[in-house]
Amino acid sequence: MATPTPLPSETAATARAPRASPPVWAVLLAACAGQFLVVLDVSVVNVALPSMRTDLGLGGTGLQWVVNAYALTFAGFLLLGGRAADLFGRKRVFLAGLGLFTAASLAGGLAQEPWQLIAARSLQGIGAAVLSPATLTILTTTFPTGAARTRAIGTWTAVGAGGGAAGGLVGGVLTEYLSWRWVLLVNVPVGIVVLVAAAVWLTEGRSGVVRRLDVPGAVLVTAGVAALAYGIVQTEPHGWTAAASLGPLLAGLVLLAVFVAVEARTREPLMPLRLFRIRAVSAANAVMVVCGGGMFAMWYLMSLYLQNVLHFSPVKAGLAFLPHSLSIVVGSKLAPRLMARVDGKLLAIAGGSLAVVGYAWQSRMGADGTYVGTVLGPAVIMSLGSGLMMTPLAASATSGAAPSEAGLVSGLVNTSRQIGGALGLTVLATVAAERTAARGGAGPEALAAGYGHAFVVATGIIAAAVVLMAVLLPRTPAATRGSS
């Protein structure tokens, strides 16, 4: 019996049959793997810094820029990356960001000159800024609203926290048993595997709203903050009134002023200035900039103290950071429960005050310090306080915005924290270098004095953030706190 010839309409329908949806576990795995790499590379290089300095002949300024190059470009292009996913498609942007991140990791791992490493870290930051927003957007568009999406986002958040916690230990193990280069090269095989998996399993999707990319805004804010950071670094050898310092500082201020002017006139701005008319948004972002300025440098300074003064091996230094990471996670997990009973503003102030105590205690570090007597106690207190503080600050930043703008406002908070952190690292590293030089050079006593003085300044910065919280942050209405 002859097989019936399919009707033209049946053939067309078969050709148009949609591709089977990918397994949700594969989507979750790809998104979480991308986020893990982004967060890991914020902290993984800290333990490797002394080895980088020895191998490539990096000076103190070069070490700052190994960290800051990533932080600055990540912050400057983060919002642009989120917009790109809407315009060009989440899968396409995810693959592009991961590809750039992986290629930059290879370039950094093979760097033979300091400028090559710093340039690679800059490109890594751009790749991370493109990749990170796409990972969360992929999850929210794959999992329906409800328990499934909540579990997926919870897993994504936990993986991000795990990346930050694992950075010091992973960096220490790779540096001690292989080479500092492997803190970057390890991203290459992992990135390739995730690229292949994402290309196979992810489906394309984009927003129905067509937006233009505000590339000039991203370039201006990144260049402005970088110029300010460079000017601050120049104050250490030249002083604040020298042309070598004032030139970059003034250029940075001009670039940031132009950025504000561009944002006020752009149809689709990178940072919508109208959002800052909302008190909760403007206050929380101002506090985040200051908090980032005091807190971001903790990992950098402690890594140098542990290895240069206490003579910890890279692995031992990585293990020494576990109490910091675990305390931040504990504080972040406790904060939502406490916010059900306590006003978020009061909790943020309490967490910030606890962090001030920890930073002040850590500033007493000396050349004859020990891990248990000098590091462990302050680590737990300042990190627990930071975790308790950041969650209510983030909640405050989004509480006054429309639900449709919650993602954008969250991105602003992250950007503010990263920019504040980059500038703060520059200030505190310069302060440490000045005090070390004043104490007679690079011996353990002089280095400990420099790092301790930087923590004194950081204590003052975080104390200023606590004052800003008390003055600027609005209280949380009792009806919105919920119960546990």
The dominant shape is globular
Helical fraction equals over 70%
- Count the DSSP helices: 19
Question: Residue ranges: pLDDT <50 for 5 or more in a row?
Answer: 1-19, 478-484
Strand content: under 5%
Order of helices and strands: HHHHHHHHHHHHHHHHHHH
Determine the structural class based on helices, strands and strand pairing: mainly alpha
Estimate the mean pLDDT confidence.
80
Q: Supply Rg.
A: 23 Å
Distance from first to last alpha carbon: 70 Å
Q: What profile does the largest beta sheet have?
A: none
Can you count the beta strands?
A: 0
Task: Characterize the structure shown.
- It is a multi-pass membrane protein.
- This is MFS transporter.
- Its main location: membrane.
- The protein has 484 residues and is mostly helical.
- The protein is 78% helix and 0% strand.
- Helix 12 runs antiparallel to helix 17 (371-399) and helix 13 runs antiparallel to helix 19.
- The chain is globular, with a radius of gyration of 23 Å.
- The termini are far apart.
Topology:
Layout: H1 8-15, H2 24-43, H3 49-56, H4 60-88, H5 90-109, H6 114-142, H7 147-177, H8 182-185, H9 187-201, H10 215-238, H11 243-265, H12 279-295, H13 297-309, H14 314-320, H15 322-339, H16 344-362, H17 371-399, H18 406-438, H19 444-472
Helix pairs in contact: 2-6, 2-7, 2-9, 4-5, 4-6, 4-10, 4-18, 5-6, 5-9, 6-7, 7-14, 7-15, 10-11, 10-18, 12-17, 12-18, 12-19, 13-19, 15-17, 16-17, 16-19, 17-18, 18-19
